[in-house]
Amino acid sequence: LNELLGVRSIVLVGMMGAGKSSVGKRLARRLNLAFADADTEIEQAAGMTIPEIFAHHGEPAFRDGEKKVIARLLEHGPMVLATGGGAYMNGDTRDAIARHGITVWLKAELDVLLRRVRRRDDRPLLKTENPEATLARLIEQRYPVYAQADVTVVSHDVPQEVMVDEVIDALT
Ligand code: S3P
Fold it and tell me: Where does ATP bind (predicted)?
């Protein structure tokens, strides 16, 4: 797989709670590749947390930073890159990912996502009256776009190392 990748990166896309960061970290370790998390890099570049960026600068500013950070990271492949759930919705970002990487969509059912996002409280888009309805709406908007990924792996509740095996299988 490493030979097949060359300088290209493995880019994980999908909804919040799909497991992009946790699976990505383990996948990178398994393949002996560097790992980067776009959300973490944005936070470091901004010197603020994501909720703070949304609150102080708004979502458009966040999206702009996200696009730049991902473009910069992709120049430094090969690596495993976990992106934020909205990143792949941006056409420029999709093009950059297609040029520099192989895209893996971690696809999960609404109930799986809902259970997982409830464990963490740092997603500004889910600060709504009805997070379930919000997630359902995002799924509807995003799944047709995520479907452009090179491979799709269904994210379900198995040990994360098993998810890593499934990603590697899908890529080889
Ligand atoms: C977002 C997902 C988050 C983060 C931001 C917006 C989204 O990343 O980038 O809160 O639009 O789906 P995760 O997918 O890692 O939670």
Answer: 17-22, 123
